[in-house]
Amino acid sequence: MKYRVTHKTLYSYNAPVSLCHNEAHLAPRSSLYQTCSKSKLSVKPTPAVQYEHVDYFGNSVSYFAIQSPHKVLTVTAVSEIDINQQPFELETARNSPPWETVRDLLQDRQILQAATIEAREYLLDSPFVTVHHLLKAFAEVSFFPNRPILEACLDLMHRVFTEFKYDPNFTTIVTPILEVLEHKRGVCQDFAHLMIGCLRSLGLAARYVSGYLETLPPPGQVKLQGSDASHAWLAVYVPELGWIDFDPTNDQIPINQHITTAWGRDYSDVTPLKGVIFGGGDHMLTVAVDVEKIEA
């Protein structure tokens, strides 16, 4: 599959902004099943400073600073991505190792494989995800003794999908996941954080994945420009198999419709656009995303 993603962010300020420093995670990363063939970031007004770098997690990051007064900031990222991933087989889940075996391998400091060492950092607490006995208790319904880890993850994902309501008006970026667990409401970011918290509370390595999901309009309707949105899911580490993605918002394992932009410990590591401004007062934010399938 080949996609073009256009992500446009518009800030309108009530008063002039005299100076701003910004960081963007908007260029999709290349990985085993995904190749970002091109990505361009356009900023208006023209930045005084702009450069690209790779962060600790291997994500592409754009930094820019605007040093002239402005009341409108427009940031547009246009990227083209090829995805070629094989469908996930349920037999793979049934034949995956027991989750306790994976947990013990991650805790065994005698295991010196590079991938396992790297995965251990995703066992730790992060700004938006802290291990908790309530998260562990919720997860243990799916992770009973000796159950294959991927089979248990599929079950946990399905429970989040069926027991929780998608409600964009209930949470904000900083809503604690224990509130999400208590009220069983949230959005994709919350469900990803929740499942990550459940897995880490069991001693398993899980990371946050940000990106996009191709959406289709109802039958007979034309897709509206800018109607897509950023999306979030998670991945769990399994020795020999690597990182396996799970999307609890849609109860599916991402294959060829999920476009990965970045990954990290949680949302704070991969925020699409963040920064510091001087001045501006109140502001209005508008985000428009288009995910378009194009000819190979």
From TrEMBL:
This is Transglutaminase family protein. It holds the Pfam family Transglut_core. It comes from Beggiatoa leptomitoformis. SUPFAM superfamilies: Cysteine proteinases. Residues 180-250 form the Transglutaminase-like domain. It comes from the Bacteria. InterPro entries: Bac_transglu_N, Papain-like_cys_pep_sf, Transglutaminase-like.
